[in-house]
Structures are given as structure tokens and as C-alpha cells.
Amino acid sequence: MEIFIHRGQNQIGGSIIEINTDSTKIFLDVGIELDGNENIVVPQIEGLFCGHKNCDAVFISHYHGDHIGLLNSILPDIPVFMGESAFMIFSASAEYRDIEVIKKPIFIRSKEPIAIGDIKLTPFTCDHSAFDSFMFLIEADGKSVLYTGDFRANGRLDYGELLKEIPKVDVLIIEGTTLSREEYRTNIQEEELEDIAVNYLNKHSGPAFVMMSAMNIDRLKTMCNVARRTERIMLEDVYTADIATGSGENEIIPNKENGIYAFTTGGDKQYESLKKYAKAKISKETITKNNFIMCIRQSMKNYLDKLNDIMSFDDGVLFYGMWKGYLEQEELKTFISSLEEKGIKMHVLHTSGHADMQTIEKLIQDIQPEIIIPVHTENAVWYKKFEKKSKIVLVDNCIKL
Ligand SMILES: [Zn+2]
Ligand SMILES: [Zn+2]
Fold first, then answer.
1. What is the pLDDT of residue 132?
2. Half-sphere exposure of 186 toward its Cβ, with a 13 Å CA cutoff?
3. Which of 62, 155, 212, 345 has the smallest set of CB atoms within 10 Å of its CB?
4. How many CB atoms lie within 10 A of CB 85?
């Protein structure tokens, strides 16, 4: 068996990993790089993106762009595998960005192995800020490899249960995103955010807003629970509502009975989308008569100005639920100050989508790999602490077993 890290070894993002035997070749993830560059670079990998087809399957761990972004560039006739809910969410999001999803994947389920030639791959559902994410166990030529994709232990899924299911492996290909981000040395639990937000809202009587990635389904659940516990209605813009619908999770899909409503900020496409929520749509005027938590984003500035014309934002709250680094961006700063001028206080409400040190250590102790290949990290040398028991691969991108 041969492992080839095409991209994403000493960087966060752009993940593309190849695993092959004498007769079979598969790829794990086909990500774009997260360097903020608008021009997407498709690496010239023969048989996958260019030339004659020479790949038996592509497996996508989750729907973040740095793992799925090159989906449309895969040569025709190469089967792609991923989670069903993950694909529904990805498609809903692509529709809003006017991107046609050409590839239709075959859906995978946790703990249901798939045979591709002489390679056996078993997906395991893991927790991450993307819903329906997987780790992959690959077995071939008498060797076993675990690829973690992106994962964490601080979401709603039970990490202990996952550790029980995963066997000991020869090789561990593991992410290490948080290792270079000081502020996330120990992650707080997603559920703890709920209590923090409830306590905070109990001290503020004004309207509440939340800025978060709609595709972070766990966070959306948190905010819907906060709304219920503080007797506010939850307001999802149609984009967020469509993503929630894609997840298939009833507790976050707009429905009068659960107090979640869909609203539009304008535009023909949004009005068309709003029709799907006939029984749970809400107008700006009705919004003003309620206590609420509203999902917002930068592009809604005009809408929020108009909303503020007909209601006071005094003693209001903005929960900021994205990566803190984005707060340095000028446009976002201007948007947040415009809300603060209206009487809103910002409160950071966030936890990482990626494993902290303790979580990584626990996995390594549990599965005792002979070889560790750090990927998706800017601090691969951190893994040297495991050198006594495992061989750490820091720079070689081709490993023969
Ligand atoms: Zn991710
Ligand atoms: Zn990632």
C-alpha cells in the first residue's frame, strides 16, 4: 500500500490524499486551498483531474470547501462517495452561490464498509462543525490506515463511543488545525454555549442577533435551543432555512410548532424560496411584534437598517459565532460597529470545530499507530512528542507500507 499526500500536509486546507495498492487507487477529499485567493488552483493530478481516468473512487469526509471544493473538477465516470445529509446541505448552499453540482455521489453510512477493488473502506461518523462528517478506516494489503478528516470532541456526538468503535491501526493521518491557534487550547463544549447564551439573554431585553455559518448545524441547534429557553422565536433567513432543511434535522427546520420562522431580506430568488415555508414564514412587521433571535450576515445591512426604522434595537445582543480571526476584517468591523451604534452589544459565542490537544492525544493513545502523518496543520512538529512510540512523518509526502 502507498499513501500519497498530494496537498494539505503543512497547511490548513486544500486536502487531497491518495491511497493505492497494486491494482486499486482511491482519493480521500478533493479540497481547495484556504488562502483567500479567488482563483481556484486545480492541481494537475493525472487520472483524477486530467488525462485518462486512473482512479477507482473518491471519498469526501465532509462538505467544507477545503475538502470538497474540487468536486466538479473530478473526471467523469469516477464514483464519488459522501454522506447524504452532507450532500443535501452542500447542494442547498451551492444553489445560492449559483454553482451547479455536476457530480452526484453515492451515499455512505457510518460503519457500513465499502469495497473498492482490493481496498476496504469503513466510514465512521465523527463530530465536526460540518454536519454528517466522517473519519475513514482503510484496509488493504494487510495494513490499516485511519484518516480523521476534520474532527472534534466538543460537539454533540459522543467521542468516547467513537473511540470504542475505531480499532488500532498501523497509520494515522490526523488533522491538527488548532495546534497553531493559541486561543483554542481547550475547547468548550457546544452545549455549554447554550447556557452562556441563555444567561446573557436573561440580562438583556432587546432583540438578539446571531452571526454564524449556516452550515454549522450544531451551532444552529444551539441557537434554536437558546430561543426556546428564553421564550423567543427563532428567525432563519431563507438561506439558513434551506441549509437547515438539507440537514433533515426537524428541531432546526422552520415550523410554527417549534417556534422557528423563515424570513426574506428581498430578491426574487429569496421570495421563491420562501414559498417552501408557507406555514412558517414571517414578515418584517410581524417580526417587530416579537421577541426573537435572528440569523444575520453582513449582506443584510440594508435590511437591518430598515428593520431598525420600525423597531428599537436598544439593549440588543449580537452573538458572534464564527472564527475570531474574521473580526480583523475591515468590512466586518464596519458592519458590527453599525449595529453597535444602534444599541446592540456584541458577545463572542464560539467554540472550535477542530480537536484540541487533549482530544488528539486521546485518539493517539487509544489507537497506538505505528506511523503518524499530520495533515491540515501549520504545526506538524507538535506531533514529535509521540516519537517514542510512533514514527512521525513530517515532510515526506509519499509513504510506502
Ligand atoms: Zn472542516
Ligand atoms: Zn478542513
1. 98
2. 1
3. 345
4. 17
Banded model confidence at residue 185, pLDDT cuts 50, 70, 90: confident
- Please list all protein residues whose beta carbon sits less than 5 angstroms from ligand 1, which is an ion: 64, 150
Q: How far is the CA of 135 from the centre of ligand 2 (A)?
A: 12
- Quick: pLDDT tens for 42-89: 999 999 999 999 999 999 999 999 999 999 999 999 999 999 999 999
- How many A from CA of 6 to the centre of ligand 2? 15
* CA–CA gap between residue 346 and residue 350 (Å, rounded): 12
Distance of CA 247 from the midpoint of ligand 1 (Å): 16
DSSP 101-115: ----PEE--TT--EE
Q: Is the per-residue pLDDT at 184 higher than 60?
A: no
Cell of 1: 500500500
Note the ligand closest to the C-alpha atom of 130: 1
Please name which of 38, 55, 34 lies closest in space to residue 46, comparing C-alpha atoms: 55
Where do the domains of the chain lie, and which CATH numbers do they carry? 2-182+353-400 (3.60.15.10), 190-348 (3.40.50.10710)
Distance between CA atoms of residues 109 and 91, nearest Å: 18
Chain CA centroid to CA 306, Å: 32
Note the pLDDT tens digit of each residue in 106-142.
999 999 999 999 999 999 999 999 999 999 999 999 9
Quote the pTM value: 0.95
Ligand nearest to the CA of 31: 2
Report the share of the chain in percent with pLDDT over 70: 99
CA dihedral 200, 292, 132, 215 (to 10 degrees): -100
Distance (Å) from CA 216 to ligand 1 centroid: 10
Site of grid cell 499507530: 369
